[in-house]
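pasting for the record
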Amino acid sequence: MPMETSKQSLISRYFTSDRDAASLAFFRIGFGLLMFVSLVRFWALGWIDKLYLTPKFHFHYWGMDWVTVPGIYTYGLFAICGIAALMVSAGIRYRIAIILFFLSFTYIELMDKTTYLNHYYLISLLSFMLIWLPANCLYSVDAVKDKSLRSGRIPSWTIDSLKVMIAIVYIAAGLAKLNSDWLTRAMPLTLWLQGKSDLPLIGGLMHQSWVHYAFSWGGALYDLCIIPLLLVRRTRVFAFSLVVIFHVMTRVLFPIGMFPFIMIFCSLLFFAPSIHRQILDWLGERMGFAMAKWQTDSILSQSLFLSVSQVVIIAFLVVQVVFPLRSHFLTDNVYWTERGYRYSWRVMLMEKTGYANFKIQNTRTGKRFYVDNGDFLTGFQQKQMATQPDFIIEYGQYLGRHFESQGHQHVGVFVESYVALNGRPSQQYIDPQVDLMQIDYKSLVESHILQFDE
């Protein structure tokens, strides 16, 4: 009983402890600016048109068929998201701004499954968390206008919850790398690095087997060890140096967009609040802000919203710990079937190339013809579709409905598909005898996927 009481007392003390609010303000400001830059970059590169307006067909996430691309208004959706990101950074109508950012960004992410990336998912998760955190209590326009919002100290859990989310990403990514392909075959890095021989200085090393294994094992160790190193004050600077080197290297070697910059920024959250305050004060002085407006030692008072937020954040983080582990309860190869692959922080763990040829057949007369996928999908969509079973089924059923609308009778859709996983020989993927029109798209049964031959 005394030990149990001691544990309860320790937990109670933690949840009533407070910390300098500068860390949360620093994260809010940097997060908003990074998101704004990301959205401007996306727009400037012409990806809005290429990924959302040009395609005739869009792939949907499970249960999200109602999410559609709003045509030319997609530009307006991106504009709203960008403006909301700037408002979040400045702390202008913060709660409304972060909700608007979360909804608009997540809607953009859901418009086409083809564009799924781990860091898009992470952004949605972080922005959801920020809805529930008092990130505008310091260094914000809201706090300047309303002194009742201004607080110099906030509950410790509000800052630590963001650290836990980042830790989940790294640790889950590290655990996912503990598989035979990554550790014993150095796959898929062997395939990717061999294609980087034209890089200056290091290009000559990219064909060396020991380099491939060094990158594979080093990547796994980095993911598993970086959080403990960031948490310890004595190793924090060294750990941050590793973060910068690791993510700059991955940015040079692989086209993974803003992800390296997002992770470098997030790692700054592990530094002491005094450093965050020094950075913000220095920036404020350079930009001509009156720093006296930010100085306060007041503690954020407990409120009903803060109590609800605590419960929501704890429940949210528990889900984030458990959800990536779901694939471990399945007997099939997650890289082959991709059941449980998304949302599990399996970052850059497989290279799949595929081929899918669709046959439209009258199930009564046997008359058939083949589809040119280029008539319906962009090149990028074709590449994604050919290696992912849920894409193949959804696209096949779309073809069936399309040709039914064209007057074809008793339409059956069959696919001849082959996939190569992590450098192995190509194998037949979907059972060619299965009529895709008869598959329940929302079913979790994957009997139409042929067995993977190791």
